[in-house]
Amino acid sequence: MRSRLSPYIAAVCSAGLVIAGVWALAQSEIERNRQQIRTDVLLQLSTRRARLESALNSRLFITRGLLAYVSNHPDVTPQQFERLAQVMISGQTGILNIQLAKDNIISHLYPLEGHERALGLNLLEYYTSQEIVRQSIESKSTLVAGPAPLVQGGTALVSRTPIFLNSPNSPGEGAYWGLVAIIIDPEVIFTDAKLLPINKAIATPPGRQPTLTQSRFNTPIPVEYAIRGQDGLGSEGAVFFGDPDLFNHNPVLLDVSLPNGSWEMAAIPLGGWPVSRPLGWLYSLGGFLAFSCGLSTFIWVRKPWEMQLAVERATFALQKSQERYAIAVAGANDGIWDWDLKTQEIYFSPRWKSAIGADPDEIGSNPDEWFSRIHPDDFERVEADIKAHLKGRSPHLQTEYRILHKNGSYLWMLVRGMAVRDTEGNPYRFAGSQTDITDRRRAQEALRVSQEKFSKAFRASPDAIAITTLAEGRYIEVNDRFLEMSGFEWAEVIGKNSTDLNIWVYESEQKACIEELQTSGRVIDREIHFRMKLGEIRVGLFCAESIVLEGVPCIVSITRDITERKEYEEKLYHTTSELQAIFKALPDLYFKLDNDCTILDYQAGKVSDLYRPPEQFLGRKINEVLPSDVSKTFTEALDEVKANRNLVYREYALTLNDRLKYFEARLLPLLENQTIVIVRDITSRKQAELMLYQAKESAEAANEAKSMFLANMSHELRTPLNAIVGYSEILEEEAEDIGIPDFIPDLKKIQFAGKHLLSLINDILDLSKIEAGKMDIYLETFEIAPVIEAAMATIHPLVQKNGNHLQVDYPPDLGQMYSDLNKVRQVLLNLLSNAAKFTENGTITLEVRRISHRGFPPEPPLDWIEFRVIDTGIGMTSDQIKQIFNAFTQADPSTTRKYGGTGLGLAIAQRFCQMIGGAIAVSSELGSGSTFTVRLPYRFHFPANLME
């Protein structure tokens, strides 16, 4: 019974095994179709994401030019901004407007029509923009907000970039200016990205479930999309495009990169994920296989070698496949890694290990073997990228990082990988490749540094630099110096050519530069004439060379403004010509010497002026052609010139044609090893100086004789005058005694005339002593108050004579003064008598003060006594004030006739003040009186030079 049922049991078992295999195959086909449809959706989503990023970035990029312009021109006017904005958005769709917000208040807006309500809006006070504006300023970066409601109505994407003014050492790091913003219509962006309109779903017949019939070679299945991440918040942000419920249906997800974050795009087939069912033929095949299983068993038993052959063929095919895989990996020069996420074991290929200098058996299968070698600065980023992929936030892993080599250096690696997931989407295996990109990164860094250097040189160059297209000559970029030289604004230049701007003055110069550029590929140092915006013509030194920028043939040109240099050269040429003509006309001798006193060149007005014939001068040393004393003078002067590199004067004498002549030589350094010598005949000057010296000696002798005569005559006159005054006083007393009063008036007149003449003689004597240097100083200590009272008593009669009133103002604690009492008293009397003489029916005031710590005159003692004589008399003009201290001079000849006097009083007073260390000053106004101020040291000290 058992043997009879064995074939049936075997047949049933075989059929069951076949059915189980067919069921497993069906499940595999379902999973394959599901992965295929997700792949198709991923491909379409990647395309839409690329289009979306391109559409968005192409519009965000246009604000860079405006940012650079405002950084260098913070006082941009609305007209300049309008021209710039008009050029920037020309040809661009979807840009609602461009804004400048100085100090965060919208101040410039283009186009203005329809957006008037936004002008003047404070972005830090508007609820939808407060936070994003603060973040943009703090991070100093571009932030994209929205879609957000606009104050003028509607919604839009808003990109805001902070503007920091440029400084000399750090461009773009200066003071904060404000914001530049671009307002973009999101509908246009979504249309450019082919997200609108959404395709309609393909209708499914009633009663039938949709099936997965699409493949990668068929027309892509219809897909619907949704986007979330408002304000760049990624998966945390709100949904602003598509059906929000789409994110709950296991969508394919990709991130859209923004300057300040990202959006998250989701996609599923239109109508949802279809339910996959196996085809009917698969079940038919399974039944057929189950039916024929018994027969196959007998065949396999009867022909075992056929089975063995099949196994060998399969093994060989597998071996070939592995060989092809190994060759492909080796050819790609990439390291392979395979990470079992369940067992936490990782396989590293030999190429992976050798790339970091490790031996095959030196690295184990622990993931720490990899992560412990990652550069500390890159570790967190790599870890975040791996976690993001494993959690399904990115379709694959691709990142660059640095890994430690065995020799201690770090290499740059590019890692690509993808996780294998189960039916629930959980990763259980993670594999990929690692490529050494160190050379590429170094090249990129070198390129970045080169571009940075070029950019700095381009902006900071003192020469005008422009980049134009080769085909039409249109300006692509110009630096600030170009704009400064030409007078144009940036927006007026970009997109135009030199013909549009009327820059070239002469067409022949332009053609010559073009021909040279076509012939040799460059133009070097060609002088051209160019016209500025306002019509001024300048001269430039022009250089140009052909380059290729992003596949477009271009020309980079450099122009240096040499207008001032050309003008200077022209002036120098004329000046040199004039100097040469003047030089040849001068009677001076000219020599050029080297450092060893060899005569290199000469120029003489007359050959007869030379000490020796010309042929005996050139190429010979000075000591070979001039007397020893003269050559020694020149040698010493030349050494001084070489040491100080400055002009040196020397005088010497030579006997020419039996006559002694005097010469003046001026030596001036010309080059490092040459000196110019200019020799002038000063014989006539020397003779004139001798005559002038003799005349000076004669004048001084005559002046001294005059002073001696005046001194002697004054003494001779003083004796009889004293007798006349004395006898007149005696006669006056006797006339009173004997009762002859009629004689008394005449005797008083004799006394007054004698005393007046005696005073004049005393003044002349004092002045002659001062001029002869024989006036002595007698120092003593005396009370100041009695001196003032005595002066008041002496001058009182003269004050009353003209009907004047005398006032005295001084503190009681003036104390004692150490000086020459007679000279102090005479100065006061001279000033008071002058005030009384030139004032009628007025007031004369004497003020005395003690002054401390005053700077008059230079280097004063600590304390001073100041006397001020103030009158209300006739006063003086400014011209009269200038000469009142000159001897024998009065303010006006008419005063001499009316008031009398010799004009010596003030001159003597000034000299007395100077002798005892003080000074005298005057201020006056014609008709309003005068004020004389005398400042004398409280304690007189002889000057240091006199003491020595």
Summarize the structure.
It contains 27 helices and 31 strands. The chain starts with a helix and ends with a helix.
Structural commentary:
There is one protein chain. It is built from 27 helices and 31 strands. With 948 residues, the protein is an alpha+beta fold. Helix 20 packs antiparallel against helix 21 and helix 22 (784-801) packs parallel to helix 23 (821-837). The longest helix is centred in the first third of the chain and has 59 residues, at 2-60. Residues 198-218, 298-307 and 944-948 have low confidence and may be disordered.
Helical segment count: 27
Overall SS class: alpha+beta
Number of strands: 31
Major sheet: 5 strands, antiparallel
Helical percentage? 40-55%
Radius of gyration equals 56 Å
Taken from the alpha-carbon principal axes, the silhouette is: elongated
| Poorly predicted runs of 5 or more residues | 198-218, 298-307, 944-948
The overall pLDDT, averaged over residues, is: 78
Strand content: 15-25%
